[in-house]
């Protein structure tokens, strides 16, 4: 029971930290503000996260966990042969489940301490190796980079495409990945 309560407290802290970072900005992401936002003492918060870097690391870890869950769900729903198809479909699922602004957590972490992004860098290296292990390296890499570029533009709020256009682009990228898979068979 206490593990469940501990997990619940940890999630509440991470949710509060995310809300503060996104609504008030990274400079307002302090342990005091997070403790106040989630209605606990600073000592209680520090039981879960000993300092701000640990809190940011927890936020990055939660983002990676969500990405991995989306990838697993996509693999269960689709019997795709190419890693790029799974990656693009899971990116679409991730986009539909959470607002893009939550990905800004990675930017907050990068500003505070670039070392906190190492787990995300490792995840990206694994995805790259998975894609490169298959025949369609060049095309898959281009599709991946196109999807990342689209996401980056949206993340930075500089995209010239509206939501409908971005969804259409994502669907075209997925269709191209499926065509690569079919050509491989």
UniProtKB/TrEMBL annotation:
- The UniProt annotation gives the DNA-binding region as 30-49
The UniProt record lists the HTH tetR-type domain at 7-67
The alphabetized UniProt keywords are:
DNA-binding, Transcription, Transcription regulation
Q: Does the keyword DNA-binding apply?
A: yes
Can you name one GO molecular function term for this protein?
DNA-binding transcription factor activity
Which one Pfam family would you cite for this protein? TetR_C_28
* UniProt key word 4Fe-4S: no
This one is known as: HTH tetR-type domain-containing protein
């Amino acid at each position: 029971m206490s593990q469940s309560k501990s997990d619940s407290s940890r999630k509440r802290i991470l949710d509060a930290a995310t809300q503060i970072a996104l609504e008030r900005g990274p400079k307002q992401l302090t342990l005091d503000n997070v403790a106040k936002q989630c209605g606990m003492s600073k000592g209680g918060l520090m039981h879960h996260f000993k300092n701000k870097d640990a809190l940011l690391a927890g936020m990055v870890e939660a983002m990676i966990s969500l990405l991995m869950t989306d990838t697993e769900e996509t693999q269960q729903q689709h019997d795709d042969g190419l890693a790029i198809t799974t990656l693009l479909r899971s990116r679409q699922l991730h986009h539909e489940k959470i607002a893009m602004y939550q990905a800004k957590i990675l930017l907050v972490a990068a500003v505070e301490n670039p070392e906190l992004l190492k787990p995300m860098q490792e995840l990206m290296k694994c995805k790259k190796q998975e894609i490169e292990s298959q025949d369609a390296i060049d095309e898959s890499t281009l599709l991946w980079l196109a999807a990342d570029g689209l996401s980056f533009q949206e993340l930075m709020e500089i995209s010239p495409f509206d939501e409908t256009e971005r969804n259409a682009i994502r669907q075209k990228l997925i269709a191209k990945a499926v065509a690569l898979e079919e050509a491989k068979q």
